[in-house]
Write a structure and sequence with these properties.
Elements lengths: L16 E5 L3 H12 L4 E4 L5 H18 L12 E4 L2 H5 L2 E6 L5 H11 L8 E4 L6 H5 L8 E6 L8 E5 L8 H11 L3 E4 L9 H17 L5 H9 L2 H5 L4 H7 L5 H19 L7 H11 L6 H19 L1
Parallel strand pairs: 1-2, 1-4, 2-3, 4-5, 5-6, 7-8
Antiparallel strand pairs: 6-7
Helix pairs in contact: 1-2, 10-11
């Protein structure tokens, strides 16, 4: 039975203090979103520059949050506390979002520090993308309140959160986490079986694998493969998922007709898909083909402006 199939807990963590453990790129973005939702947020990070970096991120994210309707305030309503001790950050928190670097010993050390002082009903969610829930649970005496809560970067802008529990997760905790995320404007899915990369990362990894194969085989340049996605199927995927889109491609007969018509074509394509390795030579070919050096702040701003418009149009 999936953890979300159990009866939900009577107490839903829809309000109260939130702790953000980790003040890196993901943690700062989460903090901006939580503040936009009116939560008071305590951020833990040992870096002395954390407070400056968090406040700069919140300030730069606020116009986007207002445009998306995630806040109607000119400035944050909740309190923002910066803590050098993780135990102080989680004190009184009803929801904890952990986003420290993805090194298992670091995460286990952090969990051991905060577990004794957590509220008995607090939910702890990890942003981990490369680690599994089972691996994360190894750092807990009682992992029943821990779930996977994996966002897409940047969390304050991209709606998706992948939530997962397993047989060691207490009944109702996954449902509680999903309700919390949805209360701050997120769209959630439940990962029902543990696989590396969860769901969305595996989907984008599959696409990138074939994109790299096409470049390696000289079928198209890096630039043209990117154009093919951004000006073709990528536009449709921003509106609906692939299976629903193919349902619409089956005319009156829907998905059943589509499968009947195109089964031979897809089977032929799937048999011909590549299996490249992301080795040094391939990485150099991609970097050279992209023709870009260091990350450009102007390019990041352009991405965020376009994403904001898409999210506003499709999730507003």
């Amino acid at each position: 039975m999936s953890p979300s199939d159990e009866a939900p807990e009577p107490r839903a963590t829809h309000s109260g203090r939130v702790a953000a453990l980790g003040g890196g790129l993901i943690g700062r973005s989460w903090t901006a979103l939580f503040l936009a939702a009116g939560r008071s947020v305590a951020v833990y990070d040992p870096d002395p520059a954390t407070e400056r970096r968090v406040r700069e991120t919140v300030e730069s994210a606020w116009p986007v949050l207002r445009e998306l309707g995630l806040t109607d305030d000119s400035e944050p309503r909740g309190d923002l506390d910066i803590c050098r001790d993780p135990r102080a950050a989680v004190d009184g928190a009803t929801f904890v979002q952990e986003s420290i670097p993805e090194r298992l010993p670091l995460k286990h050390e952090l969990y051991a520090a905060v577990e004794p002082v957590l509220d008995a009903q607090a939910v702890v969610a990890s942003s981990a993308s490369g680690l599994t829930l089972s691996e994360l649970q190894g750092g807990w005496g009682d992992p029943s309140r821990l779930v996977l809560g994996h966002p897409f970067n940047p969390p304050h802008l991209i709606p998706l959160v992948e939530v997962m529990g397993n047989e060691r997760t207490a009944p109702g905790v996954v449902a509680t986490a999903r309700r919390f995320y949805e209360s701050v404007g997120k769209v959630t899915i439940e990962v029902r079986r543990e696989v590396p990369g969860h769901v969305a990362n595996r989907l984008q990894a599959a696409l990138w694998r074939e994109a790299i194969h096409l470049v390696n085989e000289g079928v198209a340049t890096v630039e043209d493969v990117d154009k093919a996605v951004a000006s073709g199927p990528g536009l449709r995927w921003a509106v609906m998922g692939p299976t629903l889109l193919f349902h619409l491609g089956g005319d009156d007969g829907g998905l059943a007709t589509f499968c009947e018509r195109y089964a031979d074509s897809f089977n032929r394509w799937w048999a011909d898909l590549g299996d490249p390795r992301l080795d040094a030579a391939t990485a150099r070919r991609l970097v050279d083909g992209l023709g870009a050096g260091a990350v450009d702040a102007e390019l990041v701003a352009r991405r965020d402006a376009l994403l904001t418009a898409v999210v506003a149009a499709t999730h507003g």
